[in-house]
Every structure is written in C-alpha cells, then in structure tokens.
Design a protein that fits this description.
about 45% helix; 3 domains; single chain; about 350 residues; Recoverin, domain 1; three-stranded antiparallel sheet; rod-shaped; 7 strands
Length: about 350
Amino acid sequence: MIDDMFNFETFGNSMICLFMITTSAGWDGLLNPIMNTPPDCDPDIENPGTTVSGNCGSPALGIVFFTTYIIMSFLVVVNMYIAIILENFNVATEESSDPLCEDDFEMFYETWEKFDPDASQFIQYSKLSDFCDTLKDPLRISKPNTIKLIQMDLPLVPGDRIHCLDILLALTAQVLGDSGEMDALKASMEEKFMANNPSKVSYEPISSTLRRKQEDVAATVIQRAYRKHLLQRTVKLASYKYREKTGRRDEDVELPPETEGLLCKRISQLYGNGVKTEEPGDPPGPGGDPASLAGDPPGPGGDPASLAGDPPGPGGDPASLAGDPPARVELQSEFLLHTAPPQNASDFLRDENLRESTV
C-alpha cells in the first residue's frame, strides 16, 4: 500500500519500502498500486510540488523490479545469512564435542610454569600429585590421585624426575582414551613440543611410577618376612636362655639355637652370662648342701649363700642370684623386645643393655 510515507517519491521513502519487504512480507501491497492503468487512473493529473503528471503506474517495470528484488534479497541474501549462522553453529558444536582444544594445552603450560620456574622441563615425582590436582578440566586429576598416577606408568629419570611431555601425553591419553586419533595427536604434540623448545633436553628413563610402586611393595614383603623370621629366632633364643638361667635346660640333649652373631650377643647381654639360678622349692644343689635362701644355714666353707647385698664370691661375681627374679621378656606386635636388667647387674650391662631393640 502506497501512501504519503511508504512511496517511491524520494530515496529515503524508497529505502523504507524496500526494507519493509526484505522478508517478502507485504510486497504485493506495494506492487498493486504500480499495476494501475487507465481507466483506473488519470495519466494527465497534476501532482503539486513535482513535475511528474499522472497517477498511473508502470506494470512491466514494477513486475521486473519486485521480482528481481525479492529473488536477490530473500533467496540470496537471507539464505546467505542463514548459511553463515548454521556454519558457525556447526563449528561451535564440533569444538564443544572435541574433549581437548588449544586452550587446554595453554592452561597446561601455564600451570607447568608454576611448578618449573627454571624451565628445566622436569618436575620432582613428589610434586606430580599436586600438579595434576592444580590443572583444570578436562586434564585435571583431582586428589586422591596417587593410584591413578601410578597406573599411568610415567617414566622416571635419574633424580626421581618426570619430563613435561610425558605428563602431557599421559593426561591426553587419559582424556581421549585408546582411540585412533591418539597416535596422530601424540606425533603432532611431540613435533610441536620439540619445535617450541630448541634446547631439546634429552633424557633416558631408568624406571617408571608403576615399577617404583612394585619395587616398594616387593621391599615391604621382604622386610615383613625377615622381621617374622627374626622374631622367631629371637623367641627361640630367648626361651633357651631363660631355661638355661633357671636351670630347666637338659644340658645333655638341648643345644643352643645359635652360638654367635649380633642377635645371640644381645640376648646374652639381656640374660647375663648364663649362670644357673635356682628358685625356691628346687632340690638341693650339687654336693648335698641346699642352695639356701637368706636365713638358711651356711653353705660349704662356712660362708652363707647370701642374697643380694652379700659380699661377692670368688672372681668378683655374686655368690648367688637366687633373690633376683629372671629377666622378663615381652614380645609385642611391633616386633619390639622389652626387658629390664637385673638389679645387681654390672654397670657395663646396665649401660649397654638394650631395653627396647627393634627386631
């Protein structure tokens, strides 16, 4: 519909009309007045303010113009806009579906700079857990991550250090999985890394995180087995020394489990020199005289077989240790040997005796 505002008399009014029918809505309302011919119009009527006379249109020119304009504006321009929008949408969809992008790798290198300020391309194995926890998704492996990092089997170089590229490749494989694209991406990443690092630090791995854990477990098993074996030896030797000290050992049949070695020396220090000690109620000692306690008749030679506090016998040793209880041995689950030295033990034994020795 053509009126005082929507018409083709001026350039501005014409642009308003064309913009209005860009979406092909209402273009027939502008074409209909242009199709007027006599007798529906007067070709000789005067139009005030213009030199153009008449109010008739040009049907042929109107049809050609509007047809050309609609084809160009609607079928070409609008569809071109739609195509651009769809293309950008597809690109955004592909980027969102791709688990890794350049921004993720930039984030990795920015985080790496904080843990490797000297740009040595290596970090300590002890810092690996904190480093992986500091990263952002999708490369981040949050704590607790020790088991997962061990399963990644990262190569270790001398000094318990790990190379930057090995960590990046392992984290990338953790995100992408075992896909066909991983091999091509790995080769591309190695090429870019070497190109961006002209120093090209070379290294020869000597171990890996998985192998290090296996070595630790193997060492723990061996240590546990040896502690158990050492505990059994200690119990046997301590039992033998106790029976020897209390006179309950058959000297003709029972032989000592060990006669030399550090363990034998320590147990001998704990139990003294193996002097036989008789308890109250035992039968008389050799020679027919009772191994008497304090207050009993004197033993052979007229001297009493006294308890602690009596003068020492020949050789500087106590004449009797009957008043001292035998040393007590307590074995705990921590494989510790606890003992208290006799009260009348010499200063040497008091100082050197190990009250708590790790077995």
